[in-house]
Design brief:
199 residues; DUF416; globular; YjaG family protein
C-alpha cells in the first residue's frame, strides 16, 4: 500500500474515525518525547501522557467539562527549542509535542485537517530519522532510499493496519478505543522503531 493511498483513506474517514486514528498515531509518537526527556532532563513526559489521555476521554465523552485549554497550557512549555539541544532526538520531541498540541486544537475546533496533519507529521518524523540513519552510514539520502527503507515501509504498513481497524470499528466506544490503542503499541516500539520502555 503506498503512502498516497493511506492519506486518501484517512481523508475518506468521518470526523470521529479521523480523531481516533490521530490519537492512535500519537500513542506511537509520544514515547520518542520520553526518550528525549530522559536523555536531556528537559520536559515532563507525564504531562504529555496526561494530555493525550484527556484527549481520549474527550473523544469518548464530547460533552464532558474536561478543559483542553488547560492541557495546552501545560504542554506548551514542554516543547523544546531546537537551538537549545545538540542532539537528533530534539526533532523527535518537537514533532511529538507539536502533533499533540495540534490534536488538542483539532478537538477543540472540530478541525479534521489537524487530525490528517498528525499522520503527516508522524511520517515526516520517520523520514527525517531514516535520512539521519542513511547519512550516518555515509549514504546520500534521496526519496527512493527513504521510501524503500524498512522503517518507512513499516510506518506505512502500520498506518494502513490502523486505518483498517478504524474503518471497521463502527461506533467509537471505550472498548473499540481500547482495542485501537492496544493495536497502536502492540509491536512494542515507537513510530521510528525504538523499543518502548514499558508495555
Amino acid at each position: 500500500m503506498n503512502k498516497a493511498n493511506n492519506f486518501q483513506r484517512i481523508r475518506d474517514l468521518n470526523y470521529m474515525q479521523k480523531a481516533a486514528l490521530a490519537g492512535a498515531i500519537l500513542e506511537r509518537m509520544l514515547p520518542n518525547y520520553g526518550l528525549f526527556s530522559e536523555a536531556t532532563g528537559f520536559g515532563d513526559e507525564s504531562l504529555l501522557r496526561i494530555a493525550l489521555n484527556v484527549c481520549w476521554e474527550k473523544l469518548l465523552l464530547p460533552i464532558s467539562k474536561i478543559s483542553l485549554e488547560k492541557q495546552i497550557e501545560k504542554v506548551e512549555p514542554n516543547v523544546p527549542e531546537l537551538t537549545d539541544f545538540e542532539m537528533f532526538g530534539t526533532y523527535l520531541a518537537i514533532d511529538s509535542a507539536t502533533a499533540l498540541l495540534g490534536y488538542m486544537h483539532g478537538l477543540m475546533a472540530k478541525d479534521e485537517q489537524e487530525f490528517v496533519s498528525i499522520a503527516k507529521i508522524s511520517q515526516a518524523t520517520v523520514a527525517r530519522y531514516v535520512e539521519y540513519l542513511l547519512e550516518s552510514e555515509g549514504l546520500e539520502p534521496d526519496n527512493k532510499l527513504v521510501r524503500e527503507h524498512p522503517l518507512m515501509q513499516y510506518e506505512i504498513e502500520v498506518l494502513g493496519e490502523m486505518i483498517d481497524y478504524v474503518e471497521n470499528m463502527g461506533r467509537i466506544t471505550s472498548e473499540s478505543v481500547r482495542g485501537l490503542r492496544a493495536l497502536a503499541v502492540q509491536d512494542g516500539q515507537t513510530n521510528i522503531g525504538l523499543e518502548l520502555n514499558e508495555q
